[in-house]
Amino acid sequence: MEYVKMYIIAFIVFLVIDAIWLGLVAPKFYRAQIGHLMAESPNLIAALIFYLIFIVGVVYFVVAPGIEAQSLSRIIVSGLLFGFVTYATYDLTNLATLKEWPILVTVVDLAWGSFLSTTMGVLTYLIYNWLW
């Protein structure tokens, strides 16, 4: 039941942070960098599946161990590593296999993934500890 609580908190935190990113920063940046590769409209089912899986990973590998250890520093280190590794999987694969994948997108995505996972982990940890 504790994982469900963590997941719900992380899901809400993720939606807020990602909505800001997708609403304010990402559209203009990605359109300028990879607009020629983008679909007319996003595949919302694929996006939802990614969100659900990614949040499971953040909860399992970042939040739960940090809560168990009551260590904010562990959350920060784990969040940075988890975000970096997960976003590197996608971006470095694209860089290796797509003709026109810009390295700038890879660098920005790696920074974003690291920031996103860390911020999700820290906020979920703080909210969880505040509530329970």
Description:
- By secondary structure, the protein is mainly alpha-helical.
- The chain has one domain.
- The protein is 86% helix and 0% strand.
- It is built from four helices and no strands.
- The chain has helices at 2-34, 44-69, 72-97, 103-131.
- The longest helix is centred in the first third of the chain and has 33 residues, at 2-34.
- The protein is elongated, with a radius of gyration of 16 Å.
- It starts with a helix and ends with a helix.
Topology, pairings included?
Elements: H1 2-34, H2 44-69, H3 72-97, H4 103-131
Helix pairs in contact: 1-2, 1-4, 2-3, 2-4, 3-4
Organism: Candidatus Xianfuyuplasma coldseepsis
InterPro entries: DUF2177_membr
Transmembrane segments: 7-24, 44-64, 71-90, 110-131
Rounded mean pLDDT is 95
Tally of individual domains: 1
**Could you name the ranges where pLDDT drops below 50 across 5 or more consecutive residues?**
none
Tell me the structural class: mainly alpha
Largest sheet: none
Helix content estimate: over 70%
Topology as a string of helices (H) and strands (E): HHHH
N- to C-terminal distance: 12 Å
- The total of beta strands comes to 0
Number of helices: 4
What is Rg? 16 Å
Overall geometry: elongated
Strand content: under 5%
InterPro entries: DUF2177_membr
Pfam families: DUF2177 (PF09945)
Protein name: DUF2177 family protein
Transmembrane segments: 7-24, 44-64, 71-90, 110-131
